[in-house]
Specification:
The chain is an alpha+beta fold and 347 residues long. 48% of the residues lie in helices and 16% in strands. It has nine helices and nine strands. It has helices spanning 11-37, 45-48, 59-80, 95-111, 137-158, 188-203, 229-232, 292-321, 324-346; strands at 86-91, 126-133, 164-173, 177-182, 208-209, 218-223, 250-255, 258-263, 276-281. The strands form two sheets. The chain has a five-stranded antiparallel β-sheet, covered by helices on one side. A four-stranded antiparallel β-sheet has the order 6-4-3-7, covered by helices on one side. Helix 5 (137-158) runs antiparallel to helix 6. The longest helix has 30 residues, at 292-321. The relative contact order is 0.12. Residues 1-9, 26-57 and 326-332 have low confidence and may be disordered.
Length: 347
């Protein structure tokens, strides 16, 4: 057996070296692949593993990347757990519309009384402009700020004009939700613009807002999810025949005059409308007819004024009784009376 000369490598050893080099390359590649799957994947892996042509690691950039990744993880977790609990509402209070919907609901209930519990109360009629998730009071306050910032954008879109929303016909979502349609017309584009600017305004505040599906304005009048027991009783879908007479019915028009930030979970108001955190008024409502919410506010104001007046009157009377002059005069009158009584007794 010949020994290899100086500087020569035996063929078997050469194969072993090749295998080692190949294994080393595979290990390095595998390591890189595994690093990419870890939470700090956005960090420059070459820099972090010292695979670089630069003599030093940019620690500052690495820390910034780590922070950025940490924020992204939190954001992704929020998005994964995204469950809207607040929404922007356009209240629908026009009497013509609410009366028409009540007639529609009663017509359906007459055909199937089980569906009575699936009906939306007339105080809750609204168009949902945007849904969002607000985790705590701080985020609710952020939502209020975003709503207030939204007003000038809406006024810019409308250019001083009223946005009239006409309702006509019936539609459904998977035969699980029944709604009154918003009729087609020139009002659609500005409403879509308002919905889009609302979504952007809230998201820029760091609020999780919006839905995966596109914005489709509608006025819900019934939904099976309000009464889960209906499914057990065989009611799995809303039969379109129940409302076929209203397919082309004109329900009336509502003017966009207010947008509310409402809670889906907090207790509703006494008039049936959702708990409202804040509102913005858009222009002036046509017709001068106050809605239920406005009437409630006016009633509260009248009661408060009456209470304040009564309290003030009580305080004034109390102060007058305690004045020294009046007190001494009362005592003088009593003394005179006592003196007169004594004289009379002597007589």
């Amino acid at each position: 057996m010949e020994r290899p000369g100086a500087g020569e490598i035996h063929s078997n050893e050469c194969e072993n070296v090749s295998k080692k080099e190949k294994m080393s390359e595979e290990f390095e590649a595998d390591t890189m692949d595994r690093l990419v799957d870890l939470p700090f994947a956005t960090i420059d892996i070459k820099d972090d593993c010292r695979i670089t042509d630069e003599p030093q690691i940019n620690l500052k950039r690495s820390k910034e990347n780590e922070q950025s990744k940490s924020d992204q993880i939190k954001k992704n977790k929020k998005q994964k757990d995204y469950q809207p609990n607040y929404f922007l509402s356009i209240p629908i209070t026009k009497k013509e519309i609410t009366r028409g919907i009540k007639i529609l609901q009663n017509a359906i209930i007459q055909q199937d009384q089980r569906l009575a519990k699936a009906m939306v109360g007339d105080g809750s009629f609204h168009i949902t402009l945007l849904v969002m998730q607000l985790f705590n009071e701080d985020e609710v306050n952020l939502g209020i700020d975003a709503l207030l910032e939204l007003k000038p954008f809406i006024e810019e879109i409308l250019q001083g004009k009223h946005l009239i929303l006409p309702f006509q016909g019936i539609g459904n979502f998977g035969n699980q939700v029944g709604f009154v349609k918003l009729a087609e017309g020139d009002h659609i584009n500005p409403l879509l613009e308002i919905a889009e600017i609302a979504k952007r305004t809230f998201q820029e505040k760091g609020i999780l807002a919006g839905e995966s599906r596109g914005f489709k304005p509608h006025l819900t009048f019934m939904k099976l999810s309000k009464a889960p027991w209906l499914r057990k009783n065989g009611v799995k879908k809303i039969d379109p025949e129940l409302y076929e007479k209203f397919i082309s019915h004109r329900f009336g028009e509502e003017t966009l005059y207010r947008i509310d930030l409402c809670s889906m979970l907090k207790k509703k108001q006494s008039n049936g409308y959702y708990h409202c955190e804040s509102s913005i008024v858009i222009g002036e409502k046509n017709g001068g007819e106050p809605d239920d919410a406005e009437l409630v506010r006016l009633s509260k104001r009248l009661v408060e004024n009456a209470v304040l007046k009564a309290v003030q009157q009580y305080l004034d009377e109390t102060q007058n009784k305690n004045k020294p002059g009046e007190g001494s005069s009362v005592k003088t009158e009593e003394a005179d009376r006592n003196g007169n009584d004594s004289e009379n007794n002597r007589k």
